[in-house]
Write a structure and sequence with these properties.
Layout: H1 15-19, H2 37-51, E1 57-58, E2 61-62, H3 69-81, H4 86-103, E3 112-114, H5 115-118, E4 122-127, E5 138-144, H6 151-155, H7 158-176, E6 197-202, H8 213-229, E7 234-240, H9 247-256, H10 259-263, E8 265-268, H11 275-278, H12 293-296, E9 301-303
Parallel strand pairs: 3-9, 5-6, 6-7, 7-8
Antiparallel strand pairs: 1-2, 4-5
Helix pairs in contact: 2-3, 2-4, 3-4, 7-8
Length: 306
């Protein structure tokens, strides 16, 4: 599809200009053509909301068919995730609204999970000085698989595990403050999305050769759900403390995943190498200069009993 040059999606403001805009004035999305993918998806929004039983919240943003800034921000994420294919974006957004309506992910933020089972398994931190990042701060979520005390208790109850995992994801998204965003997300292929998090999967002391069946099921379910309902929410994903001998497994993944997805993956055999990618803001155990995760990181809410 070709757009008239006078209506091409331009970004004339610098990052600094957008970040210092007056908080009293509602931000405005740059002018776009009437047939721009965002406007096409916006026209479909009322029917998508109706199909989801009237549910209209995505990532803490209430979608509004009138097209305010934050609504277009969310729509842009779904469009970028589908290479500007409006029909595919429409389908994914509809599925996401339906899932959020039934699963109620925002409620997981106030749910209390067993500290005995999930304590120490996930943390969210904010760091500055990430190399090549244009953000003042970046949100980093850590998944510490070596902290699992009992596979059956942690992964055996799939619904409980998924609600905890969603709570951790939503906590990271909450830090992105999408409902307060002032800088637009560029069109697909035209620049970086500044509203994405970084995810770390730490496999220290984990055996890849004897994976528990419950772990496999939970992992597959999490990947399946997250790939469908959390598009464009991660800019980088690091797998750290992965045994060198298992490098072949991740190499095999690259053969079946899209180039765009593979670009976001980085495998590190040693945890202390992570600072070369993320800078000094991460804990010392990862080569940075910050305090341990249990000191600086935020976790989901916990109860003391199982």
């Amino acid at each position: 599809m070709v757009f008239k040059s006078v209506k091409t999606f331009h970004f004339k403001k610098t990052l600094e200009e957008f970040m210092t805009m007056s908080t009293t004035a509602a931000p405005e999305w740059p002018a776009i053509a009437e047939d721009h993918p965002i406007n096409q998806l916006l026209k479909a929004l009322p029917s998508l909301i109706e199909a989801a039983g009237g549910y209209k919240e995505v990532y803490g943003v209430t979608l509004d068919p009138s097209g305010p800034f934050t609504t277009k921000l969310i729509l842009q994420k779904f469009l970028r995730a589908n290479a500007d294919d409006v029909e595919k974006a429409k389908t994914q957004l509809g599925e996401t609204l339906a899932w959020r309506s039934s699963f109620k992910p925002l409620e997981t933020l106030s749910e209390k999970f067993s500290k005995e089972i999930f304590g120490g398994l996930g943390y969210v931190i904010e760091i500055e000085g990430v190399p090549d990042s244009e953000n003042k701060k970046d949100v980093v979520t850590f998944n510490i698989y070596g902290a699992v005390k009992d596979n059956k208790k942690t992964f055996g109850d799939l619904d409980q595990f998924l609600r905890w995992r969603v709570a951790l994801m939503e906590k990271g998204i909450q830090k992105l403050k999408l409902n307060e965003a002032t800088m637009p997300i560029p069109d697909y292929g035209k620049g970086r999305d500044p509203y994405q998090g970084i995810q770390i999967h730490d496999y220290l002391n984990i055996s890849f050769l004897r994976q528990d069946p419950d772990v496999k099921v939970a992992s597959r379910k999490t990947i399946d759900v997250f790939s469908k309902v959390y598009p464009e929410m991660l800019c980088r994903k690091f797998f750290v403390n992965v045994p060198v001998v298992m490098g072949w497994m991740f190499a095999a993944f690259k053969l079946i995943l899209s180039a765009e997805t593979v670009r976001k993956f980085t495998v590190l055999s040693y945890g202390e190498e992570l600072h070369t990618e993320l800078g000094d803001g991460i804990p010392e155990i990862y080569g940075g200069k910050s305090a341990p995760l249990d000191t600086i990181g935020e976790q989901t809410l916990y109860t003391e009993t199982s």
